[in-house]
Design brief:
Layout: E1 11-13, H1 23-31, E2 37-38, H2 44-51, E3 56-59, H3 66-70, E4 77-80, H4 90-95, E5 99-101, H5 108-123, H6 126-134, H7 138-145, E6 155-159, H8 163-172, E7 178-182, H9 191-196, E8 198-200, H10 203-209, E9 212-215, H11 229-233, E10 240-243, H12 252-261, E11 266-269, E12 295-297, H13 306-324, H14 359-364
Parallel strand pairs: 1-2, 1-3, 3-4, 4-5, 6-7, 6-9, 7-8, 9-10, 10-11, 11-12
Length: about 375
């Protein structure tokens, strides 16, 4: 990309301490002559103080409510270094002419790997057996093993049928799992589902028949608490629940109650509503889920890998450079496609970026 005075722009990168700039991201900034202002803030007033007068803003996990958006008097783009944008007031950004971009293909393979790892860990009761082993309860661990069910022939239900769910399907099929899925529009063409060997059903059917239920939905007004006490109770007795997408889709207290009662056999949770994992202070979680021995808890790591970090840096930086260079990002990466930008933009031009030619170079510098 030709020099366009990036050194004169004010670019703020949020979450600078909790999720620091990774090597690929840092190298791309150097390559294009951008000096990011690194800010780590969580409360709206603190964020506003850090992002004042920025021309572009990149964010990983911080919340950007309406009052923060209103303060962005010069900002042209909010580049979400990730996929979900439920923590960003996209409607407010659209009203103010700020483009919101994301990385829609981010970490699909990693999430699918994590779902399968969780499924296998729950099915084989590996966490419980490991605890028995370290406590010297070897016979207790073997007793657990005698109650295990063979995975082949069991049913995996996917709530949502986007890219990450399809990636799980490709991994699950060789294990002999029966595959169900549901989505908002059950009347949509089923050619892809049929080709993958997935039976499309309504949510109640999926919950009643599945031995494993995995969530693959964005957080929206329509999906908030979709898995509540009533819905979770419809799950097959003894089944397992996996959530790697958004915590607020699930009523975590209701989930804990059903796990404690034995109605559900176990759960693997990687994303939370009631437990703050991106805050300034770290401490052992004080939540009912953390006190159960049939639960696998991880701090939103399902999307992490060296390769995923490279991917999100490349596309996230490309999105903001496009706008700062006077062009639209790739259409697939624009969250608020109907926005009227503050400055007139030309069509997207991928040839302007040469950094995809040698990602390893940037990662190693």
């Amino acid at each position: 990309m030709p020099a366009i005075g990036f050194q004169d722009i004010r670019f703020v990168r949020l979450n600078a301490e909790v999720i620091p700039v990774n090597p690929t991201e840092a190298a791309l900034y150097r390559h294009y002559g951008i000096t990011p202002v690194l800010v780590d803030a969580y409360e709206p007033d603190d964020i506003i103080a850090g992002v004042a007068d920025c021309d572009a803003l990149a964010v990983v996990s911080a919340s950007l409510p309406e009052e923060v958006i209103r303060s962005l008097a010069r900002c042209r783009i909010i580049s979400r270094l990730g996929n979900g944008t439920d923590k960003i007031d996209v409607e407010a950004a659209t009203r103010d002419g700020i483009i919101v971009s994301n990385v829609p293909t981010f970490c699909n393979d990693e999430m699918a790997d994590h779902v399968m790892a969780s499924l296998l860990g729950l099915a084989r009761r590996i966490p419980a057996m490991s605890r028995h082993f370290y406590a010297g309860r070897f016979r207790k661990a073997r007793d657990e093993g005698l109650r295990l069910q063979r995975i082949s022939g069991l049913t995996l239900g996917l709530i949502g049928f986007g890219a990450s769910a399809k990636a799980v399907v490709r991994r699950a099929k060789p294990f002999g799992l029966r595959l169900l899925a549901t989505r908002k529009n059950l009347r949509a063409p089923r050619d892809e589902a049929d080709a993958l060997g997935v039976r499309m059903v309504d949510l109640d059917t999926l919950l009643a028949e599945s031995d494993f239920v995995s969530l693959h939905l964005p957080l929206t007004k329509g999906t908030y608490r979709l898995l509540n006490a009533s819905t979770l109770r419809k799950m097959k007795p003894g089944s397992f629940f996996i959530n790697t997408c958004r915590g607020a889709i699930t009523d975590e207290s209701a989930l804990a109650d059903l796990l404690r009662s034995g109605h559900l056999g176990g759960a693997a949770i990687d994303t939370f509503d009631d437990i703050e994992i991106f805050g300034e202070q770290e401490a052992p979680p004080d939540h009912a889920l953390a006190r159960l021995d049939n639960v696998i808890l991880t701090p939103h790591v399902s999307g992490l890998s060296v390769q995923a970090s490279q991917d999100v840096a490349i596309t996230g930086v490309e999105n903001l450079l496009s706008v700062l260079g006077g062009r639209w990002p790739h259409p697939d990466n624009i969250v608020n496609a109907g926005v009227r930008p503050r400055l007139l933009l030309k069509e997207h031009e991928p040839a302007l970026f040469d950094h995809r030619k040698d990602v390893a170079l940037y990662a190693s510098n």
